[in-house]
């Protein structure tokens, strides 16, 4: 972390004339340890000051790069960031190719599209994911991805709300809450932000919060299947959650980015629960469902029935945010998304999901055979492994050092992730098998 | 605008039990005047409450739709929203086609890319736009467009700053400032937000603010060539602006989205001005430069030399925002952007810019021939027409009613745009010629 010297003293001393300064910058500004800078009089955003470290996944990448510098010939297997590896079905790419080719013709060229997404795609999303659930295309907002939508939802909600998150959870919920100014002070002793409610979701409670003990908050982020634990909330659990939100007058932001990975009868959308439309926003994505991690496409559903305390429909304000702070997802990518939702497209992306789930099975089998306690991998492409008594960053470092496998330390997802490691099942089959063998070798020899 | 009744009374009466309510919704929720809703206890974001009306361009579209409903057979010419109409050069689409095809192959598939953009593209942007200006690829952040970046810059800066904008100006600066919470109360009498500094930029001062009369603000949004006036700030003007920012310790957010349209020697980047790197962020876009309005690609430059008052580099926090609130521009689109910046691509997009500028010349000639005072159209694809003594929304309505041409009322860009109309030069040549003739006919007959 960077700490300035001269300039901050100037600021404390209330000397406001801008000056040319020689500053010693952190090593993140590579190869330039001495630099001429200029202090503006603009104070750093206090919300950004509160962030404790870099965003989790770029941090993991940084560790990978450092490792490669140390072991340039290592065959590193990356099961860290949940990044898709399987080629897109040709039905999807053909459709994008046609659209792109059209852009070079007078009849096929398209300029600005609707900020909310193309009508045909909004309709196809309803048919594919919300059939018989009463969601209307006008309630679906197409975007460049769920992570971006989470920040836009925070812009929508503003700084004056209290938020609850599952612990552990996908770090964008807490980080975006900090950035918008909801989170309050970070407390070193607990590893938690003061104004965020951490709902422990561990195996002792079937990865579901003990709701009666959770204070009322205005927002509740809930992710199912959960990243990182891999747990898909049961129908009964989600009924309890919706009931809890209704009684408390809270809004649930339900993240269903991994719903395509559900193999049992757990609900794939919060709107399968009666009454959810009046308390829940749903965020979802083509990233993991269709391998669009780099192509970028997602959506958010804001039902008309969802109202602020003064009766104003949330959907109107979300529409305003999408028109002002966003300008529509790429029309090329939307054409690809539409192709994913055709019967042929759905079949093709389904087989890729199955491929990753077979990877998950291989990883779960390998780890279970060693006597480890393993969660996830059944309804999600993540395997959540318990190392009782160990610090997760230490486990992460040891696995990396001894097997050249990148994982993610559980505590990166919140204090509730301590003692755990998340292993991603995204990857080529050969790498997954190789990784399983390396882990078996390492852990077997540690035990014996 | 929607005002609820029952629910807000409940809220004022402090009755907190959520209830099922029958609510009369505004006509924006079409075809459903009576609806069952549920009031959560989540208050509406006070910042969103302060927005005065819908975002300008969707509002203009709404007028167009209403007009088409009234005149279903009218041959409406849309010179309102600045939307590109010319097909993309094949050198650009071929490159995207190759990339998309690759996504269906094992070797060509790509998942998540760097949140900051592909290295090759960041480098190509530097070569194409910042040659000899000392900008480094690591200071360039590729995005899905300038409008989206403006909101991310507001997230970066937070609510506790005072902002100055040109008046008139592109509405996203003010609206995003309202959404993040910088703007304060809207004052009906002035048509201005209390905490925003409106820097009048009219013809009396060569479309440049009278800087000695402008109070110090932390942020200054400055757009050159300006949307809507079409004025490109001269080198001398920009030197004054940079000097003003340095003395005041302000940060300039310089929007150069239309720089490709500059035909004289006005600077195309703020970094052409010595010392600008220490006080300015630059936002730019492929939208108007390369016809990417629907394809979506832009970038923002945050120089390492730009420091907060405590000496912390702004670029570190912007990187954190991009990693947390954004997930990279579509890799397909980035491939297209890279092709635009090849020698062949640059030549091809240049000829499209020339086409729109010829449109602008035709419009300027037609309007000038009627004795109207016309600005812009020389360094920007917008023509800014003065109708002294008239309300711009009335002029907009009359032109639409009598010629079926969509324009944009100047007051939509701020109180300084009153009495003006913005006419976009984006369009097919035939439409531009037809529009010129209709305007000539209408305005000639009004005069005589």
UniProtKB/TrEMBL annotation, chains A, B:
It holds the Pfam family Aminotran_1_2. GO terms for biological process: systemic acquired resistance, salicylic acid mediated signaling pathway. Keywords: Aminotransferase, Pyridoxal phosphate, Transferase. Transmembrane segments: none annotated. Residues 75-425 form the Aminotransferase class I/classII large domain. Its cofactor is pyridoxal 5'-phosphate. One of its GO terms (molecular function) is transaminase activity. InterPro entries: Aminotransferase_I/II_large, DapL/ALD1, PyrdxlP-dep_Trfase, PyrdxlP-dep_Trfase_major, PyrdxlP-dep_Trfase_small. Belongs to the class-I pyridoxal-phosphate-dependent aminotransferase family. LL-diaminopimelate aminotransferase subfamily. This is Aminotransferase class I/classII large domain-containing protein.
């Amino acid at each position: 972390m960077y700490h300035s010297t001269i300039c901050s003293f100037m600021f404390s001393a209330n000397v406001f004339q801008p000056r040319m300064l020689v500053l010693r910058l952190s090593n993140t500004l590579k190869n330039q340890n001495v630099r001429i800078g200029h202090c503006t009089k603009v104070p750093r955003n206090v919300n950004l000051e509160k962030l404790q470290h870099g965003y989790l996944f770029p941090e993991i990448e940084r560790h990978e790069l450092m490792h490669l510098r140390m072991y340039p010939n290592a065959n590193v297997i990356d099961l860290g960031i949940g990044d898709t590896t399987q080629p897109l079905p040709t039905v999807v790419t053909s459709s994008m190719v046609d659209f792109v080719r059209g852009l070079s013709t007078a009849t096929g060229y398209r300029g600005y599209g609707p900020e909310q997404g193309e009508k045909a795609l909004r309709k196809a999303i309803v048919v594919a994911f919300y059939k018989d659930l009463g969601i209307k295309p006008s309630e679906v907002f197409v975007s460049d991805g769920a992570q971006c939508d989470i920040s836009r939802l925070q812009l929508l909600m503003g700084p004056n709300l209290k938020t609850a998150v599952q612990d552990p959870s996908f770090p964008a919920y807490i980080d975006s809450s900090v950035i918008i100014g909801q989170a309050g002070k970070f407390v070193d002793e607990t590893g938690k932000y003061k104004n965020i409610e951490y709902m422990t979701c561990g195996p002792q409670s079937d990865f579901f919060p003990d709701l009666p003990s959770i204070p009322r908050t205005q927002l509740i982020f809930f992710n199912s299947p959960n990243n990182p634990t891999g747990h898909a909330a049961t129908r009964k659990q989600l009924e309890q959650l919706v009931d809890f939100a209704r009684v408390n007058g809270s809004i649930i932001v339900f993240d269903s980015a991994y719903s395509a990975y559900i193999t049992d009868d757990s609900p794939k959308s919060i709107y399968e629960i009666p009454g959810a439309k009046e308390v829940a926003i749903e965020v979802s994505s083509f990233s993991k469902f269709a391998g669009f991690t780099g192509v970028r496409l997602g959506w958010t559903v804001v039902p008309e029935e969802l109202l602020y305390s003064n009766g104003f429909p949330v959907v109107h304000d979300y529409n305003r945010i999408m028109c002002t702070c966003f300008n529509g997802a790429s029309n090329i990518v939307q054409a690809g998304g539409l192709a994913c939702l055709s019967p042929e497209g759905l079949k093709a992306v389904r087989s890729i999901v199955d491929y990753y789930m077979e990877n998950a099975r291989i990883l779960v089998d390998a780890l279970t055979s060693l006597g480890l306690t393993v969660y996830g991998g059944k309804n999600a492409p993540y395997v959540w492994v318990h190392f009782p008594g160990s610090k997760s960053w230490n486990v992460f470092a040891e696995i990396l050092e001894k097997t050249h496998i990148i994982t993610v330390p559980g505590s990166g997802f919140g204090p509730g992730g301590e003692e755990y490691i998340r292993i991603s099942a995204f990857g080529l089959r050969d790498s997954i098998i190789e990784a399983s063998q390396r882990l078996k070798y390492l852990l077997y020899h540690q035990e014996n």
